[in-house]
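seq/struct pair 1
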Amino acid sequence: MNANLLQTPIDYLKGVGPNRADLMRKELGIHTYQDLLNFFPNRYLDKTCFYKINELQRNSAEVQIVGKITHLKSVEQKRGKRLVADFVDDTGKMKLVWFRGQKWIRENLKINTPYVIFGKTNWFNGLFSMPHPEMEPVEEYKKQLRTAMQPIYPSTEKLAKSGISDRVINKLMQQLFIETKGKFIESLSREIITELKLLPKAKAVFNVHFPQSQELLTKAQFRLKFEELFYIQLQLLIKNMLQKQKIKGYVFDKIGDNFGEFYQHHLPFELTGAQKRVIKEIRADLGSGAQMNRLLQGDVGSGKTIVALMAMFIALDNDFQACLMAPTEILAIQHYNGLVELCKNLDTTIYLLTGSSKTKARREIHEKLENGEIDILIGTHALLEDKVQFKNLGLAIIDEQHRFGVAQRSKLWHKNKIPPHILVMTATPIPRTLAMSLYGDLDISVIDELPPGRKPIKTVHRYDANRLKVFAFIRDEIKKGRQVYVVYPLIQESEKMDYKDLMDGYESIAREFPQQQISIVHGQMKPDAKDYEMDRFVRGETQIMVATTVIEVGVNVPNASVMIIESAERFGLSQLHQLRGRVGRGAEQSFCILMTGHKLSNDSKTRLETMTATNDGFEIAEVDLKLRGPGDIMGTQQSGVLNLKIADIVKDNQILKSARYHAMQILKEDPNLSLEKNKVIRFTYAQVAKHKNIWNYIS
């Protein structure tokens, strides 16, 4: 088939015309024959079965019946009229009802002519009725390109109002298959098709739009989902491969005094098996000669900082400098204090550079950095300034990487002639399927166990009615010398209602705990005031911190053992998990109390049950992915990557794993896709890479 035919503007398809074409472009993004072909149904109605009227059940199932209209009349009602028809078959009688479009229906319906009707039934006054049924004369029904399963396509209000119904889309699809003769070029290799027993491309495309049976529909969907995910994975793996070939990295082949001395004599605790595994993976990268691009995932408190420090020691042992960039000043200061404490018995020079650093201190840092007197520089975005020049930067570590844009990260690349090795860290667990699709071009390490001695945080759900008991519990904890967070939702900084929540909360806490010092932190405060309040809490001058989610990332206060989250039903799962991670940092037992009203949606109940059942961030992330979908979790910045047409990375995660496995096997054997058997894949991949989307070309 001529591939160019599918690039024909949709206006030229018989039955479309300029007005419909305009609507389809605006509402559905359908510009060409190709786009229509890849406009997939989102569900199907099973029309394999015809019912007799005496077989109907009193449920709201959608059914299909063959019969005749014997009588038609208008019935007055409170507002306007309704049109009612008697519909009979050889077993009984039912009513068909229309509340709108009556004039057209009256003019077009034929009495005593056999019709196929389809719709939901109601039981009323001893008779079944069907409002606004789909109807087609039996004669017409037999002529159609008919399928057992009727596809239902995504729609919009505008389309429905303009009469572009499923039936219209279905007819346009039939026309498209007539014009293209249903012949589509194969886009997967014979080897994959045989091994996975996949339907041929043309048969899969046909059966997704006109399924001939349940079995063929299932096979068609599997084939097209696999293909979509396979080419996404192929793109990511090839990008990773090219990066390693093209971008040379410094070879850190020495493990010397810094690493050895710290590991042998100054490690404050035994490393977990997961930490040792991740350090091994990083060591292999740093010695490979290719630039490292690794994502380090580890739940709150899993010990990513020690791993980062060990990686920095490897850079130092090979006569290079290292830097660590954090998204906020508080977090940068915390990293700085933590690393200085860990390195106090070593000859390692560590400096801190933030937006608040004084001019004199900056000058000193710039000078010492350039002459190599600084080993490790910790800082915020201030590290990216052009004035900040290293003598020999070998490793750059980025904490909470999702808070930095791509442009900011690439500035670090240019801090040396050959780009430094990059390690990005996140405490936001990313479900494996999502990580494979979004960060498939990065190598991923996971720290999936907590250091020994850490007690799991006890999480409970309490209703507002139990507030006095919760206050009594807070009093007991403060008497033991502990500190408490009370967090309120501030969904948008400008929402007056939410701001009022926080201020009301602060006042009620102040009334309830008149003896205690209380800090308050929210997004409308000036940074200095915010830092001052945070600092008082960190130093233990205040016992209670009333805050909004601004404390979600950062502050390490080992003495804080209680986290109260007000209106917990208004938070997402990952946010609740991040907030909970603010406590449980000391040796004492810590608690997280989720406060809510009594009215809870099903999703809210699921979130609260998940939080009380587990402390495992990856388990929580999987539930979150099921509840919210990938787009919401990654935010707008990333969601374009997963603009999937037919696959769903939550429901189809097994297909995704299979697609990645097969893409890896092919590249292992044939990295340039130059073998004859992979010719089809090479051609399709070239098209995909050109269009950035597998469905933008005909395969």
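seq/struct pair 2
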Amino acid sequence: MRVTAYPRAERGDLVEILHGHPVADPYRWLEDAASEATVRWSAEQDALWRAHAAGLPGRESLRERAMALADAGTVTAPVWRAGREFMLRRLPGQPHPVLHADGRAIVDPALLDPGETTVLDSWDPSPGGTRVAVQLSRDGTEVGALHVLDVDTGEMLGPPVPGCRHAPVAWISDDAFYYVRDRRMRLRRVDGEDVAVLEVRGVPGLGISRDGNWLVISSAGPEGTGLRLADLRHGSPAAPSPRPVPQALAAAVGRDGRLYLAVPERDGLALAVADPRHPLVRRTLLPPDPEAPLADFTVLAGTLLVSRLRDGACELLRYDRETGAYLGAVALPGRGTLGRLSAEDDSAWFTYTDTLTPAQVWRYDGGGKAASLWEDSPARVRLPEVRTRLLTATSPDGTPVRVTVLAPPGTGPRPTILHGYGGFGLPMTPSYAPDSLAWIEAGGALAIAHVRGDAGRHAQGVGAHRLRALEDFLAAARLLVDGGWTSPDRLGLWGESNGGLLVAAALTRCPELFAAAVCVAPLLDMVRYERFGLGPSWTAEYGSAADPAAFRHLLAYSPYHQVHPGARYPAVLLASFGGDTRVDPLHARKMCAALQRATSGDGPVLLRHEPGVGHGDRAAGRAAGLAADLLAFLAAGTGLSL
């Protein structure tokens, strides 16, 4: 697998003194994607990757199998408006999910763009179900236009609003809605009239009560989450007067007219209730459960339905709406993942998925003890046989780290992928993943490390504590080796976005533990991350290099700055995307140049750059192609025969 010559990358002598510490940045010039030197270097890297990929065994068969497994399709829980049902479905052979109203397709991105680069980023139906706001973007940028569609005729109403990035929408009637663009909350009427109303800092969010009386405005930024609540019953919609709601991370006004608040306490999130007119006069309805953090809730006629995360899977629990008394658990199909709860009258709908179950929609009727299947996945596919084991590693500070191992039947060391994320409080729960199943079917194992920084232990892995996530991840790797599940020459790594940061930090800290790694859309230069993409909005998670204390811990694990000449690094494939507006591809470019110059290992260091896609959703065929490339690379590096 060894590459004898890499494209020439000029190693500069740039050294900055930051907080009294010299910081070398020899590949700063690769930050400029449009420069002649970067364009030439990138083209040579692309040619090198294509030549290498063409010789990877099993690449095409992996793509076909991943595509076949993905053809189970997707379906989402319905959203109800005035008795009308809105939901997404993707049938076998369709490249993107299609928005349906009462079973009729109303927005199909593939019909709008035969090139399959247009994505439906979000959709929000009006209270009467007669209109729907849809946001469409192209080439993976996640920045596009907001349109208003007449549900019955398909007619676009008024001019589109350009420059929207997952702009939150809150309808106040079938003729007007609030939305956020360019840090301003605006009131837009369907005829196209637009009025700027309020400034919203950070990452914005809007929520509105079912009766349209209360608007919740949220903003997440470096200082944390800020909440404001506006009473829309009084005054003009163009001049709401929101009041701060302190000491809460999330808020919603339920169908019972009460304000529900997610309140941080020492042991986790509590659920409190208040009169929305007096949000500071609140009482705790559900205290924190440190073993099962709160994930979502919805209010039914007499029941409070709550989803929680426990032992790496989701559970659904019933509580008395008035007293918070526990009424019991709702029986679920298995240990899996629940989507957002959607309620209408005294029923709730949610998606369910697990390792061997494509997304299904289940329904719970108030007063019952079990949910029932409401809509199955669109198609049946042949699935491999998978065994699941739950292991526990021990981090150096004594913290237990749960590790889920998925493998085909049989025993003994085998090529294994270790996957992790470790940030933003996101859960690593069981879900249907065609790429994972294709790997297991081929004879490999997949291990998922539930490290600090994920859901339930977010605060323990954030900011100055980020190294804990790395230590947890390395403890999981050592457990797999010491337990005979795999060996260093058969252990690969897989991480995406923040998970790519975790993987790169692991391979630069302990390169001898791993045979191969793939880093997808990774953050890698943590000294300069906040200057690019959505980096400025992540300083609450990582800290800012402008702060001396935060700078020290950022530099301590920043993968780009931890590359050492002569180290025997494993085979590494860095994947970046031309439309990625979250994590700039410059991270992958700089890391690729640094590793190619430094490594003394036999494994290749390669860069796979794909234009026309971004950080998020893409057409099913392109997703299968990416998965096949990454899996084939890992198979070659870990010795999996395809």
